[in-house]
Design a protein that fits this description.
The complex is a heterodimer. Chain A is built from no helices and eleven strands. Chain A is an all-beta fold. In chain A, the strands form two sheets. In chain A, strands 2, 4, 5, 6, 9, 10 and 11 form a seven-stranded mixed sheet that branches. In chain A, strands 1-3-8-7 form a four-stranded antiparallel sheet, with no helix packed on it. In chain A, strand 5 and strand 6 form a beta hairpin. By secondary structure, chain B is an all-beta fold. Helix content of chain B is 0%, strand content 57%. In chain B, strands 2, 4, 5, 9, 10 and 11 form a six-stranded mixed sheet that branches. Chain B has a five-stranded antiparallel sheet with strand order 1-3-8-7-6, with no helix packed on it. The N and C termini of chain B lie far apart (36 Å). The relative contact order of chain B is 0.35. Classes of the chains: A mainly beta, B mainly beta.
Amino acid sequence: NAGVTQTPKFQVLKTGQSMTLQCAQDMNHNSMYWYRQDPGMGLRLIYYSASEGTTDKGEVPNGYNVSRLNKREFSLRLESAAPSQTSVYFCASRAATGKESGNTIYFGEGSWLTVV
Amino acid sequence: SQQGEEDPQALSIQEGENATMNCSYKTSINNLQWYRQNSGRGLVHLILIRSNEREKHSGRLRVTLDTSKKSSSLLITASRAADTASYFCATDPLIKLIFGTGTRLQVFP
């Protein structure tokens, strides 16, 4: 049971470099999310995709772009990394159906990104 | 800004004691969920309570919801050292799930 898989798990970037965080889910979920988690800040929503073909900004989208490549995959790109983007990034997905079971969100294990 | 705010930020108790953490939110919701995060891991869903429910149980977990006060509480009874983790509430006003800042629970053996 893979669930939500995100790569890489750890990455160190220099300021100004670009990179893409990859995320894939094998649960046939409609909605996918990218969050960042910083100490004392909880989880903040960066971008989400309610369904294949759509993406929307969350609370903190500046400096990021996303692509919902297909129903399974949702990538997060940092075009020009900044030290303020040092964080732990979590990808998540949920079925988002009308059933209560469709409300549960499933998380990946996180990607630790350091920008120096 | 965060939709949910947990209180307290940190809680330390002995094994066997009960742990209570609270969550306040700002806007109308469809449901409220509680998640747990072990150190260095992703979040795991614990329990969901719908806006028309007042209380829900799951094993040692008891969740209450007061929509008039826009608040929820999570009670863990007879805590164990393995319950040590951060706990987050999440509200679902529309399609996007918004998380609070979390309560760090430490259970000492």
